[in-house]
Design brief:
- The complex is a heterodimer of chains A (about 120) and B (about 110).
- Chain A has about 120 residues and is mostly beta strands.
- Chain A contains no helices and eleven strands.
- In chain A, strand 5 and strand 6 form a beta hairpin.
- The termini of chain A are far apart.
- Chain B contains no helices and ten strands.
- In chain B, the strands form two sheets. Chain B has a six-stranded mixed β-sheet, with no helix packed on it.
- Chain B is globular and about 35 Å long.
- The model of chain B has no long low-confidence stretch (mean pLDDT about 95).
- At the A-B interface, strand 5, strand 9 and strand 10 of A face strand 4, strand 5 and strand 9 of B.
Chain lengths: ~120, ~110
């Protein structure tokens, strides 16, 4: 059974960056695509981007272009999402999802709070 | 970017009712359309992909249809455990955009 385990909650200052990890186990990491989705309090799901680790291809939502970087370390079966220039509007739960290609397995979510 | 619009934004129905949610794409996306369920306080769950293919383990009361720009998710007989917010998502080329969600409640 595939499991995705995300890093823990973060509190960040405005203007800083956050890097969330997503470690896969129980499956072949390079068989999956990893998507990153976020959900602000009381809001809907927002797709941020995805990566195909086997070819290191990533694409991003237009509104995050230049501010988000998604990477994957095949040696540790871990994907990362880094978001820079944080504002209070980036306060949200961030989820990683893995699938072929749609996310069928999900991490537990990582709460990122941006506050001065 | 292609925009995804769901309707209604919320609905309330009785147990056993047939429920239909609509999703429209601003441009044609063939059948590159998925539906997700998100129960309160939980992460998303993939229900349907390729517009009409049920993900393994999903109850058969869920079904999807459509192609191009217009899609529907139908729950044939609403159950208490179906209380959730439902999202469509396009996954054709470019960004994989979600609809804004439809909240389903029991009357």
């Amino acid at each position: 059974q595939v499991q995705l385990v995300q890093s823990g909650a973060e509190v960040k200052k405005p203007g800083s960056s956050v890097k969330v990890s997503c470690k896969a186990s129980g499956g072949t990491f390079t068989n999956f695509e990893i998507s990153w989705v976020r959900q602000a309090p009381g809001q809907g799901l927002e797709w941020m981007g995805r990566i195909i680790p086997i070819v290191d291809f990533a694409n991003y939502a237009q509104r995050f272009q230049g501010r988000v970087t998604i990477t994957a370390d095949k040696s540790t079966s871990t994907a990362y999402m880094e978001l820079s220039s944080l504002t209070s509007e980036d306060t949200a739960v961030y989820y990683c999802g893995g699938g072929q290609p749609l996310p069928d397995y999900w991490g537990q979510g990582t709460l990122v709070t941006v506050s001065s | 970017d292609i925009q995804m619009t769901q309707s209604p934004s919320s609905l309330s129905a009785s147990v056993g009712d047939r429920v239909t949610i609509t999703c429209r794409a601003s441009q044609g996306i063939s059948d590159y359309l998925a539906w997700y369920q998100q129960r309160p306080g939980k992460g998303p769950k993939l229900l349907i992909y390729a517009a009409s293919t049920l993900q393994s383990g999903v109850p058969s009361r869920f079904s999807g249809s459509g192609s191009g720009t217009a899609f529907t998710l139908t729950i044939s007989s609403l159950q208490p455990e179906d209380v959730a917010t439902y999202y469509c998502q396009k996954y054709s080329s470019g960004p994989w955009t979600f609809g804004q969600g439809t909240k389903v409640e029991i009357k």
